[in-house]
Write a structure and sequence with these properties.
about 260 residues, seven-stranded mixed sheet, three-stranded mixed sheet
Amino acid sequence: MALRAMSAVLVHDAGGVRTVTLNRPERLNAIDQAMLDGLEAALAGAEAAANVRAILLTGAGRAFCAGDDLDAQHAISAGGRGAVERQVAVLQRITEHMLFGSKPVVGAIQGWAVGGAFAWTLDCDFTLWAEGARGFLPEIPLGLFVSGGATWLLPRLAGPAIAREMIYRGRRLTARELADAGVAGRVVPEDRLAAEAIGLARELAALPAAAVARAKRAFAAPDREALRAAMAFETEACIAGASDPETLIRLKSVLR
């Protein structure tokens, strides 16, 4: 399949791998509604496509994703609760596709992985982080809230102490620190990131698809209900935070 634009997301299918590229490099791939819609469509399409057997998620340019585009977030929050509810629903459906779909997801992370995009790295089955990459969760200081199952996944990967540092205080961790904490799957030289990530995705795509799907279901099954409960709480907390007039004030102060 030829490379095609889906709003702020690029999709390329080859050799059983769907490469999904976050494509707002001029904004360090910061998240806006168009990106969320494009990413959800790309993941849903991958799940439905028989020729796609693995997914590679990456970002164009210098960063994987710089988190929320604060201009876009301010506009959504100012648009009222309905706009916020739509945004959060799409955000959490992306996680549903990544965690509970049948196709394995490989994340290739360079530069920054921030906020919702850092949560997406937790949702991947495998992650490769470039040396020099960093991740953090800035939501709480802005009055927003984390998403993507991060409140459940991060404590279980990194432990409660690091999870609290990242979620409450927005602590920034390097790729090496994240690997030591059990969050980053593998750290590779930046000039090897793309090659190693596509190599891993192709390896997964070459495996028997039904067996891979069973393995993915098996990993998710024991904790599915707890994770869904955490995501339901996150959804309400995200809506409440983004709808709060005090959050608009904080966003305005950051945007000045």
